[in-house]
Design a protein that fits this description.
By secondary structure, the protein is of the alpha+beta class. It is built from eight helices and four strands, in the order H-E-E-E-H-H-H-E-H-H-H-H. Strand 2 and strand 3 form a beta hairpin. Helix 4 crosses helix 8 and helix 6 packs antiparallel against helix 8. The longest helix has 20 residues.
Length: about 170
Amino acid sequence: VPIRILTREKEADLTFRGVASQLKGKGDYLVMDVGGGSTELSWTHGRRRLGFVSLPVGSSTLLAGIRNDPIGPLEWAGLEQPIRQALKRAPSAIKPSVALGIGGSANHLPRLLGRNPGELLTMDHLNHAARLLLKHPSIELAKKYDIDPQRVRSMAAGVLIIGTILRMYNL
């Protein structure tokens, strides 16, 4: 089976194409794809993509070198600095009214929170997820919510990335 490595631009384009049909009306959206090694942001007006940026920060890269499970609160807080550094590459002038998150952490958050897929999640929901992820070992949460333990572990960083992006854009 041939393997093709996608450019960051191609990855952002395919991500946007995959969610474009969910963008309703002419609102301004921020599409976030938080992956293990990078995070792609696309900003749109309705279904028209206006731009994108690929950030060299992902949930797995943030957790490299951290062995505690659950991750300690001070370790978790220290992960925000590389996120903020990466976000310097993102435009600050855009004003999205809604963010759409995809990728492993975003896709598994509803299950962890007992919500339905596609349901609106607020900062309160993210804070609740963070409290769960920082309090309980990943294996315990994995069993309780039927999520792969490695995915649960990476969600602590994914939630922090998502939350930092949402705060940056006042969402």
